[in-house]
Specification:
Blueprint (H helix, E strand, L loop, with lengths): L1 H25 L16 E7 L14 H9 L2 E7 L2 H10 L6 E2 L3 H9 L3 E2 L1 E2 L2 H6 L2 H9 L7 E2 L2 E13 L23 E4 L2 H12 L1 H13 L4 H11 L5 H15 L4 E3 L3 H6 L5 E5 H13 L6 E4 L5 E11 L4 H11 L2 H11 L2 E2 L9 H9 L6 E4 L1 H4 L9 E4 L5 H5 L3 H5 L1 E2 L6 H15 L5 H23 L32
Parallel strand pairs: 1-2, 1-3, 8-9, 8-10, 12-16
Antiparallel strand pairs: 3-12, 4-12, 5-6, 7-10, 7-11, 7-12, 7-13, 14-15
Helix pairs in contact: 7-10, 8-9, 10-19
Amino acid sequence: MTERIYKITRLFVLVALLFSIISGFMASPVSAVKVKAEGVEKEITVFSWEDYIEEAEDDTETGVLEDFETETGIKVNYYTFATCEEMYNELKKDPTACDIVCPSEYMILKMKDEGLIKQFNMPENYAQNASPYIKSVFEDLGLSDGERTYAVGYMWGTMGLIYNMDKYNAEDLNSWSKLYDQKFSGKITIKDSIRDSYIMSLGIVYKDELLSLKDKLNSGEILEAEYKEKISEVFNRVDEKSIREVRDALIELKSNLYGFEVDAGKNDILTGKIDVNFAWSGDAAYAIYESNEGEGYSKLGYVVPEEGSNVWFDGWVLTKDADEELALEFMDFMSRPEIAVRNMDYIGYTSCIAGTEDTSVFDYILDCYGNDEGEYTVDLKYFFDPECTTDAYVVRTDEIGRQFSAQYPTEQEILRCAVMNNFSAQELELVNKMWNEVKLITLSDLALILILVLIVLVVLFLVAYKYFPQIFVIKKKNAKRFGQKKGWKVVKIENFDTN
């Protein structure tokens, strides 16, 4: 029975593949073409994510790009992509199509290795205002040496679970393995993204090992540096055994899912279609904010499971033929604390810009979440200034595990999160193959029987039509009932030679 199921599912996959190929030929390519505007002497082309920069709310205001153009006289041709892979494919077709791109960390590493981007001097505002934590991560990844860099950070965050707080609490979802609990059946969505769902599944497969490492850290048996190194190794395993076990874990989890999604999850949990969504922290912040504002929405929370998770970064990079001077002006402008706050407030994600005590970023956090009489305290000096010896970056707040926690995870949460490395071509091929197996339509025995019955009925119909045509005679008196239009000739089928 299993073999027959696989044969039918493979047929579905082949049909889907055929349609995807046809769609690929018919679809319009992403427009990332540099066009010199008439009468414009200075311009750059930027390729970034959709809805990832502040725009004017109405005609009385200006957005970030308009303000940059007004101040510098540099025109910005701004184009968007939906996924890093879409962006990568467009640039492979024409590496000169744009000057600045905003990929995620694994794609930045891939583009660096393939020579699609170039190293440049760190913009002054970024050097002064970027979070020390973000800078250290980029240095660890080999993207920066403190003065020269392949990327400057734009937004960052974690991967975790948004959940309905009216039905569940954080303890119900403090482990990735709890997604298998039948009380969530049909109420969970995870990312239709190989990398994100893969790293989540490694947390399921290697739960015991990850929790053991955490216990060793808490007991002092290992230090933080060793702990970070070891969990990074676990969350980046792509050996055949790990891939096979991830596949099995995901196939088992499918029976508990509402489905896979890329961008719909944050709205589905708002409208009550689901109760749990595997999400980027920025989407969690958006959903929680909307749940506070809208009537009839459930109260939403956000949790990073105790085994650990992914910490991700998006950053600005320069293509090989970029106009470096103009591009650096753009990056420098985007690295101003006041611009970072505007972008952060507009899109709901967390900027890589920390600023200084005299700038507006920390004040923005206090304005959004601070309460001098709040029940909880969170020290964010790891992000703003690890050398700080005072309480300058302590936030006292009313709520933990909601929007504030999604935007600014604690140091303990960050400690158990790992950056995703770039897969080699061979590793990516194996992971893609695994993902295709996971996404295959799995049929129950009942569904298989119904399909076979349908096939038999179709065959019987065709046989009857050929050898017993009189059954299908359409009588003239029934023409109106069969929807025949005036003037159409109704012909008896038995008059045709069916041989």
